[in-house]
TrEMBL record:
<keyword id="KW-0812">Transmembrane</keyword>
<dbReference type="InterPro" id="IPR002010">
    <property type="entry name" value="T3SS_IM_R"/>
</dbReference>
<dbReference type="GO" id="GO:0044780">
    <property type="term" value="P:bacterial-type flagellum assembly"/>
</dbReference>
<feature type="transmembrane region" description="Helical">
    <location>
        <begin position="65"/>
        <end position="88"/>
    </location>
</feature>
<feature type="transmembrane region" description="Helical">
    <location>
        <begin position="126"/>
        <end position="151"/>
    </location>
</feature>
<comment type="function">
    <text>Role in flagellar biosynthesis.</text>
</comment>
<dbReference type="GO" id="GO:0005886">
    <property type="term" value="C:plasma membrane"/>
</dbReference>
<feature type="transmembrane region" description="Helical">
    <location>
        <begin position="95"/>
        <end position="114"/>
    </location>
</feature>
<keyword id="KW-0966">Cell projection</keyword>
<dbReference type="InterPro" id="IPR006303">
    <property type="entry name" value="FliR"/>
</dbReference>
<dbReference type="Pfam" id="PF01311">
    <property type="entry name" value="Bac_export_1"/>
</dbReference>
<keyword id="KW-0975">Bacterial flagellum</keyword>
<feature type="transmembrane region" description="Helical">
    <location>
        <begin position="210"/>
        <end position="231"/>
    </location>
</feature>
<dbReference type="GO" id="GO:0006605">
    <property type="term" value="P:protein targeting"/>
</dbReference>
<keyword id="KW-0969">Cilium</keyword>
<keyword id="KW-1133">Transmembrane helix</keyword>
<feature type="transmembrane region" description="Helical">
    <location>
        <begin position="39"/>
        <end position="59"/>
    </location>
</feature>
Amino acid sequence: MLGFGLSIEPQLWALVFTMVRVGAAFIAAPVFGAVSVPLNVRVALTGAIAILSMNAVPIQAPGEVFALATFLAVAAEALVGLALGFVLQIAFAAPLVASEVIGTSMGLSFASAINPQTGASTPALGQFLTILLTLLFLAVDGHLVLVELVVRSYELLPPGQAWLAPGKLQNIALFGGYAFLAGLLLALPVGFLLLCLNIIVGMISRSAPALNLFAIGLPASLAMGVLALLVGMPAMGDYMLVIIREALDAAQSLVLG
C-alpha cells in the first residue's frame, strides 16, 4: 500500500521513479530531446536507461506515492536531469550564435529553415552548423557519455539527496555565457575575412561614391563567405570538438561536482 489505499508493484514504482531523472535529462539534452524523435522511442529509451541505472546502482524509491516527501523527491530528480541536459543544450546554442554573426555579414540573415532539433525557425547556416555539431557529437560517442553521466549521477547524487545547491544553479546559469563565447570563436575565421572584405568595400565606396555597392558588395560578401566557410571548415570542425568536450566536462563538474 503506497498511500490513499492504492497499491502498486514496488519494482514498477521504482522504475517510474528512476525514469523521472533519466527522462528529464533526455528532454533537455540535444539529440535525445529533438522534436523529430518519436515519443514512444523516447519513453522506451528512458525505460531502458532507467533499468540500466537500477542494475548499476541500488535506488530506493519513496515508500508512499502521494506524500509531500515523494513530491519533493520527484522534483529533485527532475531538477538534476534537467540540469544535465540543459548544460549540453547551452553548448549546442553556439552554432546559432555563429550563424547569426556569419549570416549577417554574408547577407544570409534572411535565409531561414525549420530546425529539426527544436522545430523552430533558425538561420539556414545555423541549421547546417547544428547538424554538423550533432554528427560530431555522435561520432565521439557524446550520447554514450551523457548516458554514463546520468547513471553516475545516482552514485554522486542519490535520490533523496539530489537537491542542487544554489551555488551550482548559479554556476549553471553563468555557463550560459559560454554559448556566446563559443559562438563568436566559432565564427572568427569566417567573420575576420568578411570584416576585411567590408573594409575593402568601404574604401572603394569612399574612392568611388558613384559605385553601386549593393550590386557589388552583396555578391562579393556572399562569394567570400562561401569561400571562407570552405577554407575554415576544418578549423571550425576542430573547435566544435572542443565545444563538445567542454560541454561534457561542464555537465559533470557543474551538476555532479
